[in-house]
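Quick check before the chapter quiz. The format below is the same one you will see on the exam, so make sure you can read both the input and the output lines.
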Amino acid sequence: MAIRDDFEVVAGQVRTVVQRFALGLLVVAAFVIMLIGKADTVLVEHARVVALDFASPVLEAIARPVAYANRAIADLKEFASLREENARLREENSRLLAWQTAARRLENENEGLRGLANFREGPEASFITARIVGDSVSAYVRGALLNVGRQVGVAPGQAVVTGEGLAGRIAEVGDNSARVLFVTDVNSRLPVLIERTRERAILAGDNSPRLRLTLLQSVAGVQRGDRIVTSGHGGSFPVGIPVGEVVETSEGGVRVRPFADFSRLEFVRVVDYGVTGLVGGTGSSQPVAPMPGQKAR
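Here is the expected output.
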């Protein structure tokens, strides 16, 4: 018992000394380690490598269950999202089936009405792909020069379209070239419909990036986002070719953003819908000269 008591007394004294001088001891130990590192870097590097080799398996053993747990949580989240997506797709599929049923019914009714009215389809449209080889840099002209002409069937009044919508019409034709007048040109006037309301109007260019919708019965019926399509009136183009979207409605008028991006045009389609447009004539049989201010590409 006496030995145990003496040991406890000594241990308590040592503990008190350590607690009192702990900060100093740590500073001295750090200083000694720094001296050893400066004196023998190879020894310190070897000790670091040994410590890493010892700790690596332990860290890997600890990280493996964590990785499994994270993977399991990710799988559960993905499963939950898949269930939600599956429910959404089922709902969307139901709506599409309903639309498909309605479309088939309307198609059958349309066929019946066509037969009843002895309706005849118009001539099938044909097109030619053309490259823009020159464009206008003038403040008074919005058009371009194409590398196709009369020899491949291009004629005045034919539509010039992009993948987005109507870009303009053929104004002049030569044997191997043609001039297209964009819908943004100040000389462009196009009979159109507001797709939602079926109201007729005239879409006019003014050499700006936006078009003006004129001759409307009421501006109040037009809303932002309304699609503008060709009306087919005047024999210029068939009905339904997309042209642009209403972006501004005010007392001063309605502004339309064309679907065609004229700043990036390189290739276009010259489409012959088999109708005689507002622009007639045979056009010139000579190559079309560039417009004033027009540069070759």
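If your answer matched, good. DSSP finds three helices and 13 strands in the chain.
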